[in-house]
Amino acid sequence: MPCxxxxxxxxxxxxxxxxxxxxxxxxxxxxxxxxxxDDSHQVRVLVxxxxxxxxxxxxxxxxxxxxxxxxxxxxxxxRGCDRIxxxxxxxxxxxxxEREIYACNVLGTRNLLAAARDAGVTRVVVTGSLSAIxxxxxxxxxxxMPFYPFGKQLPYSHTKALVExxxxxxxxxxxxxxxxxxxxxxxxxxxxxxxxxxxxxxxAHRRLPAYVPGGFEFVSAADVxxxxxxxxxxxxxxxxxxxxxxxxxxxxLMDLYQEVTGVKRPPLRVPxxxxxxxAAVSEAIVGRLFPSVAxxxxxxxxRFLRMRPRADCAKAHRELGYRPTSIADGxxxxxxxxxxxxxxxxxxxxxxxxxxSERVR
Length: 361
Ligand SMILES: NC(=O)c1ccc[n+]([C@@H]2O[C@H](COP(=O)([O-])OP(=O)(O)OC[C@H]3O[C@@H](n4cnc5c(N)ncnc54)[C@H](OP(=O)(O)O)[C@@H]3O)[C@@H](O)[C@H]2O)c1
Prior knowledge:
Blueprint: E1 18-22, H1 27-38, E2 42-47, E3 62-65, H2 71-78, E4 83-86, H3 98-118, E5 123-129, H4 155-172, E6 177-182, E7 184-186, H5 195-204, E8 210-211, E9 215-220, H6 221-234, E10 240-243, E11 246-249, H7 250-261, E12 268-269, H8 272-289, H9 299-307, H10 314-320, H11 327-340
Parallel strand pairs: 1-2, 1-4, 2-3, 4-5, 5-6, 6-10, 7-9, 8-12
Antiparallel strand pairs: 9-11
Helix pairs in contact: 1-6, 2-3, 3-4, 7-11, 8-9
The protein binds NADP nicotinamide-adenine-dinucleotide phosphate (NAP).
């Protein structure tokens, strides 16, 4: 694999250059756009027409309408841009949308990288996913752990692994591309909202009847944004960097939600095999009859939690100077943002009592 030397350019200080963010209305994109604007950058966002969730309302960004599947719209989006953060993707833990997920994530990334190369873009940072890295039950996984394509992998995970191949192909073709791998994001500016955002809203409104044990790697939105900036500034072309804040068992996450919302955690802790069965039945029935309904739990989400994946961010730490902050801050910021937008009506108590920067272990 070709490895270019670390560039000497300080991308963060070059505020005159135009930066394109794809998926700017998404959870990560909305946080990244705000951070870039706080750092006085000129930002353009690629969004699909008709899906306005309010994430960009009131922001002084240049909006270009297009779709990753439409190469012509991407040529317009990248024109005049110096660098790109490619955050857009179709996320799904349900089955049944394989072709659409493949077209958006894999072919869409191929289209975008080709357009970027033709337009002379300096560097592209592409968001990756921990689900596209292999699993080891005995130790945290790092960037070296290969994705295992068989077994019960989700179509989404497959596509995120193939997105990485597109990035490496682009590097071979001369486009400077770095992969910034995210774990599950918790944080503010979650306008859609995301699966984890919906869990927090349900928790705050006492609509979460039960939870599953298990655990996952979580990253605060601020940390994954910082990781993307570091990857742009210091990452090596063709390399991948994992950005996470910490592993949390679901019991710890429920404790954290209880502290932040002031609402008592659900009394029911459903054993993992039982929840896997319930999720499979609800996906089969609800997923088939009402495909647009977002399920609280899917079989894939339960499987991920049961695997308790752990991530090792040593490479990002060592090469980029990445220093994760606190997942408690991310949850508190997510809660506060929902509250300010009027999405949380019944606060458990005023003030969460949680200290900023307190880490849950
Ligand atoms: N959220 C997580 O926990 C997590 C974990 C690991 C990795 N990631 C990665 O992080 C990135 C951002 O995720 P997120 O949480 O911000 O997801 P998100 O909130 O669902 O946002 C994804 C964005 O991508 C856009 N998009 C999807 N298909 C598109 C297409 N064909 N053309 C143009 N735009 C398209 C969506 O636009 P519309 O609004 O028009 O649909 C949406 O704004 C993704 O690459 C994802 O794989 C996320």
